TrEMBL record:
Region annotation Disordered: where it falls in the sequence: 250-290
Hydrolase listed as a keyword: yes
InterPro entries: SNase_OB-fold_sf, Staphylococal_nuclease_OB-fold
Compositionally biased intervals (Basic and acidic residues): 251-263
Keyword annotations: Endonuclease, Hydrolase, Nuclease, Signal
Keyword Nuclease assigned: yes
Protein name: Endonuclease YncB(Thermonuclease family)
UniProt signal peptide: 1-22
Amino acid sequence: MTRSLPSVLLALLLMTLAPAEAAAQRLRAAGVIDGDTLELEDGRRLRLAGIEAAKPPPNAAPGTRWPLAEAATTALAELALGRNLSPRGEARTDRHGRLVAQLQRDDGLWLQGALLARGLARVHTQPANQPDGRALAREMLAAEDAARAAGLGIWRTRAYGVRPADDPDMVARDRDSFQILEGRVLRVTKAGSEAYLDFGEDWRTDVTVHIGRVAFRAFTQAGIDPLSYEGRRVRVRGWVGLRSGPMIEATHPEQIERLDDSRTPAPKVSIAPPAEPPPSVSDPDDEDAD
């Protein structure tokens, strides 16, 4: 059964995006590769910046159906095909030769926001030196948060569920995958121009977030002292590695959200509502994270 969108999300949907400086660059999609990648009429590929749509895992057997990945691909086709598109901000080229951009339609609909609103993608921002890595991060996080609270799309499955940061064994099972964790930071250790956020008593086995030198500067430039995370409940997203226990490398501030602060409302942006309600998707509990 399709669930109705929460009122907070409807408020986001009904506002209008500010005009984009790059709106003069018109693009047309000839096809959809997957839930976050378009093939343009001129032969180039365009990757939607800042999100990761539901996809089959790399080891998926040929011919295996992945309903959430299919729903994301179908949704992007409905949103983009046959419409004039334009980058919101700068469209840049990544190391794979793809254009990467925040994308909006000729009627002002913001594609990233629409996919997040349907629960068919997660926010996956990049460092500032990557193409459009951190653009519209607050707005994307707000849309993702509303869809998760409503249990839409991927947020109905355990595969995409938020992992407890105080359970290193569970997090370790997700090694080499992109995950979202929540927990209270018990201790922050500063070592020179680096910082380590620990979620357990034993740094040799617990879940840790590492903020390296370059990232440390990015945090301080954003007005964030990494030491201020101590004792705070946070949500962290990133790739899980193993280094004296599960570890996520935080390369930019948008990877860490403080959950116990009184939040300043995110700026209102438009992701104009889809003409049809979001597609209902099955709840395949065994669908792996992409």
